[in-house]
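Internal tracking record. Fields below are filled automatically when a chain is submitted to the structure queue. Please do not edit lines marked as system-generated. If the sequence contains nonstandard residues, flag them in the REMARKS field before resubmitting.
Queue: standard
Priority: normal
Entity type: single polypeptide chain
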Amino acid sequence: FGDDNPGGKLPYTVYESVRQIPPQTEYDITKGFTYLYFTGQPLFPFGHGLSYTTFAYRHLELSAPEISAQGKTEVRLEVENTGQRSGDEVVQLYVHAVAGRVKRPLKELRGFQRVHLQPGEKRRLTFSLPADQLAFYDVQTHSFVVDPGSYNVLIGSSSADIRLTGRLKVIGAP
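SYSTEM-GENERATED OUTPUT FOLLOWS
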């Protein structure tokens, strides 16, 4: 046992109780279901996984903290294996619109990278985040729209284990 270090992550939320699960006839995600809108305490959150080692996240930076609705930024950070065993970590990038014309999710997964690190090894990771990844579907214009304003950039090991937070500002008309 323990010869292999697990590195998988859950692609869904495991709820703590059946009372947290919506009835089959009512599955509007905006009412607090899925990792996008759920505010309760799940048994295992979206993106959760186990490992026999530990990882530290450091030095979050955005190449452009202010972009246009057609622009992009690069999200950079450092990950270090701080444990005693080699292992994989899946670093997850989420975004959250601070305000906007419509109700937006608490966080939306916009990227992930799996990295294998030896004990003590550090690695710089870069995510490309174009503004269109911040868009939502506008039912009035029947098109995807990027709202100007502030967005939180969240880096974590799961949707509930956010390790680094940055702020991105989108300028210009939608």
